[in-house]
Specification:
By secondary structure, the chain is an all-alpha fold. Helix content is 54%, strand content 2%. It has a three-stranded mixed β-sheet with strand order 3-5-4. The chain has a two-stranded antiparallel sheet with strand order 1-2. A hairpin with a 6-residue loop joins strand 1 and strand 2. Helix 4 runs antiparallel to helix 5, helix 5 packs antiparallel against helix 6 and helix 13 packs antiparallel against helix 14. The longest helix has 45 residues.
Length: 614
């Protein structure tokens, strides 16, 4: 067997391993869409700069994709970019070598991202891209030596490398220029996208004896992002029964919305982004939290005998990212289970490995906020160093307008990204009270006249951002029914306006995507109970399909649960209207606006390239 044939067989195996790795990671449709977009952008960048030998932004884009999204997606972005661009340049024996070389650049980026993602800086990123360019050159020199020289002697390899050195240097210098120009901006955008996939903000509801159902994640229109652990979500159903206190009707979820959610649980015990969709660990986790906030222990949620915890245990291999760990710790605490011994793993110890010296979790505000709440749920005291350092990081990263940006200080403040730190700080015995007061003022200033809240100041209202704001105000002890901007209406009324007759809640006036997720978040917010959620008492009876019925006002004192063979009848105070509320809009509109942001960036970049070449 010749060297060239043997090398191609080895490359084929290496590429197959890379693609199988990516497939076995079970990327969501959103991550697949993002990987395809980045691969197309990398291929287009190579084609646009074809007239300038070896100067192309492809290597930078692949490396940054690996840093932000991880090894498997980074490898696929590089390999697909090489294959796609060679439709223009021509396919040949060099194609698998280029696919392998750029795939390796994606892996190199993932390794850097694991250790240095938020500390690498503009110059460091440029240096990494230069090194990646030189490494790419080494692989391609080796490919020519193996395929075309015939003798495969060391002298031939050195001569070949010397002749190629000017081109390799041009590649490295070009990478430095591109990295300095757009590297940090692209990395921040992708990090934002990736973490949106991992974390879904949820604020649970107020105690209500029985409320059961599911809820889930939400894909974005056109597919956006969600990192491995997909974008997932919160849910909750709130049955406002008055045990000790009568909850105002404005804070109660409608029985129709609760029933709508109840029907979404799958036979495996988990939940998907919409009724009939496959279960995911992210969606299942948020649903379990929502139900716990509504007063139902996740261990009692079993429409088909299996509980959300059963599904999470079976799908434990998918709980790998920081957001996955944080969400699952919150779920286990709400179920009264130890996060230090789940499916043979200590999730708290795994989360601690993502904590950095500055007190953050992976250097991001949203992950740090959820990290603080997860630590508190796991039993750590507010005085513990991990909690104190996390809160201190959040205080340092607060913007001058009182809000927080997804990745840190200096970015545009958002409603979702401000609501989570408020809950985290208040979960830590009110730490950072000045910062919390400024954050509350930021939220109040940015309420729209329709009563809702936007993802970012000035944008249109959406159900999930409105739900997040309600959760934050509830954590502050403020009645959301009294939160109004000028002569506008309350956020509760805004949410009611999005509720259909079947109980489903639309994301906005113009979008009804992922109704289960949105409805669940709305119900959870209306329960007005912030994270972390304490364990609700276990129910004596666990039945497949609960039905909520209202009892006469005379039975206000205490809700009762009567088990039958097919349902649980809950008798709460009086029948009241429902007020749905969603939690993190970062999903739908966030993801939507994020994809638009990436598309605009790509369009501007390509336009600049074409202008230069024209």
């Amino acid at each position: 067997m010749s060297w060239s044939v043997a090398s191609l067989l080895i490359l084929a195996c290496a590429l197959a391993v890379g693609f199988v790795w990516y497939e076995r990671s079970r990327p969501s449709p959103k991550i697949v869409a993002l990987v395809a977009t980045l691969a197309a952008l990398a291929a287009l960048g190579r084609i646009a700069f074809a007239p300038i030998p070896n100067v192309k932004p492809t290597t930078d884009i692949v490396l940054i994709a690996g840093m932000a999204l991880g090894g498997a997606p980074g490898f696929v972005v590089g390999a697909v970019a090489a294959l796609a661009s060679n439709v223009f340049f021509g396919q040949g024996t060099w194609t698998p070598w280029q696919m392998f070389a750029w795939g390796a650049v994606g892996l190199f980026g993932a390794a850097l991202g694991h250790r240095l993602r938020d500390r690498i800086g503009r110059v460091g990123l440029a240096a990494a891209c230069a090194v990646a360019g030189l490494g790419f050159g080494v692989v391609m020199n080796l490919s020519i030596w193996v395929t075309f020289t015939g003798g495969q002697t060391l002298g031939e390899l050195l001569a070949l490398s010397g002749a190629a050195l000017p081109f390799d240097i041009a590649h490295a210098v070009g990478n430095i220029v591109f990295a300095l120009a757009f590297g940090p901006a692209l990395l921040r955008s992708l990090l934002r996208f990736r973490s949106r996939m991992d974390v879904r903000w949820i604020s649970p509801p107020s105690p209500a004896p029985d409320a059961l159902p599911p809820a889930v994640e939400r894909p974005v229109a056109g597919g956006l992002i969600s990192g491995q652990s997909v974008a997932a979500v919160v849910v909750a159903l709130v049955m406002c029964a008055g045990a000790l206190t009568v909850v105002p009707s404005s804070a109660r979820a409608s029985s129709t919305s609760i029933s709508y959610l109840q029907r979404a649980q799958n036979s495996d015990g988990g939940f998907g982004p919409a009724p009939g969709r496959n279960s995911t660990s992210a969606d299942t986790g948020w649903v379990a939290l929502g139900l716990a906030g509504a007063g139902t222990n996740p261990l009692d949620v079993s429409r088909f005998q299996a509980t959300p915890l059963d599904f999470l245990r079976r799908d434990a291999a998918a709980i790998v990212e920081v957001g996955d760990l944080e969400r699952t710790i919150l779920v286990l605490a709400a179920a009264g289970m130890s996060p230090r011994a789940f499916a043979g793993r200590n999730l708290v110890a795994e989360l601690a490995r993502h904590r950095r010296r500055d007190g953050s979790f992976d250097g991001l505000v949203n992950l740090t906020a959820f990290g603080v709440m997860a630590l508190r749920a796991s039993g750590l005291a507010p005085s513990s160093r991990s909690v104190r350092d996390g809160v201190a990081f959040l205080v340092r990263e607060q913007n001058s307008d009182g809000g927080w940006a997804f990745s840190g200080r200096g970015g545009a403040s958002g409603i979702d990204d401000t609501s989570a730190p408020i809950q985290a700080m208040l979960a830590s015995s009110g730490s950072g009270s000045v910062a919390v007061s400024r954050a509350a003022a930021f939220l109040a200033r940015n309420q729209n006249d329709d009563g809702g809240f936007p993802l970012t100041p000035g944008a249109a209202s959406n159900a999930q951002s409105t739900a997040w704001a309600i959760q934050a105000f509830s954590a502050l002890g403020r009645d959301p029914a009294l939160i109004r901007h000028g002569a506008g209406q309350s956020p509760l009324k805004y949410l009611r306006s999005l509720t259909a007759s079947n109980g489903a809640v639309s994301y906005s006036k113009t979008s009804s995507q992922t109704p289960v997720w949105v409805t669940a978040q709305v119900v959870a917010a209306l329960a007005q109970r912030p994270l972390p959620i304490p364990m609700p008492a276990r129910s004596e009876v666990r039945t497949p399909r609960p039905t909520v019925t209202a009892a006469p006002p005379s039975k206000l004192a205490k809700p009762s649960v009567r088990a039958t063979t097919t349902r649980v009848v809950v008798k709460p105070a009086a029948k009241t209207p429902a007020e749905p509320s969603p939690v993190k809009a970062s999903a739908a509109e966030a993801e939507s606006s994020q994809m638009i942001e990436l598309a605009r960036w790509a369009g501007a970049f390509v336009g600049m390239l074409l202008a230069l070449l024209g």
